Amino acid sequence: MRSIIIAGNWKMHKTQVEALDFLSSFVHEIDTAPGEREIVLCVPFTALSTLSKNLHGSRIRLGAQNVHWQDNGAFTGEISPPMLRELGVRYVVVGHSERRQYFGETDETVNLRSKAAQAHGLTPILCVGETKAQRDAGETETHILSQLKKGLEQVDQTNLVIAYEPIWAIGTGDTCADDEANRVVGLIRSQLTNTDVPIQYGGSVNPSNIDAIMAQPEIDGVLVGGASLKSDSFARIVNYQA
Ligand code: PGA
């Protein structure tokens, strides 16, 4: 039985005060969501401590947006797995396309980050996806298979989430067609040794398209950027109609 995981990725949005303001409405807006839906907020490092203290007794799980592979050391600007664990973090986004594109993440560093997260009991949400140019050139499959092969080397598939995020669909309003997202997610699943790994879709998910996306048989959840910033919008996504 595959888990359903609905995760918000706040990216570089919200101060602590804004995060608490979101939470004060969100907790009420999701209180009738079916219990089997795992709800995750992947927030800036600076909001983790405050949210962690305010999530006690809540079903909402805390996620970070990146993690280094060493426990400590001379790595200015990085955050280690034990630092996240101490704050009650359960999930961590690894290899988001914005990290790959703007901050030089490679499949190798993504792989190191995923393994280190797992070694400390965190669940990596490993992101893969093609650019528009790769899609137009018919390279979607080869690109994703290559990202998976390198990214998943020695990664424990019993503590893992994968997010298929076509880069051209992120933040553009240009959602991938539901059946095409389903097809690529199925292709990703065919590469796994554990076919129960939850695989999310991400890229312009919003309250209007969530029901159709979640109706796709291969898709086990979503990773949501822009539409996770407002509590009513993200709550509608969490409360999708099955
Ligand atoms: P979006 O972002 O929902 O704003 O397209 C998704 C993501 O980057 O994870």
From TrEMBL:
What EC number(s) does the entry state?
5.3.1.1
Subcellular location, record wording: Cytoplasm
Known pathway: Carbohydrate degradation; glycolysis; D-glyceraldehyde 3-phosphate from glycerone phosphate: step 1/1; Carbohydrate biosynthesis; gluconeogenesis
List the active-site residues: 96, 165
Catalytic activities:
D-glyceraldehyde 3-phosphate = dihydroxyacetone phosphate
What binding partners and quaternary form does the record give?
Homodimer.
Q: Name one GO molecular function term.
A: triose-phosphate isomerase activity
Q: Could you tell me the keywords of this UniProt record? A: Cytoplasm, Gluconeogenesis, Glycolysis, Isomerase
Q: Name one Pfam family in it.
A: TIM
Which species? Candidatus Synechococcus calcipolaris G9
Q: Which domain of life is it from?
A: Bacteria
Q: Per the similarity annotation, which family is this?
A: Belongs to the triosephosphate isomerase family.
What name does UniProt use for this protein?
Answer: Triosephosphate isomerase
Function, in words? Involved in the gluconeogenesis. Catalyzes stereospecifically the conversion of dihydroxyacetone phosphate (DHAP) to D-glyceraldehyde-3-phosphate (G3P).
Look up keyword Isomerase and say if it applies. Answer: yes
Instruction: Specify which residues bind substrate according to the UniProt entry for this protein.
Output: 9-11, 171, 204, 225-226
| NCBIfam families named among the record's database cross-references | tim
Location (main, coarse): cytoplasm
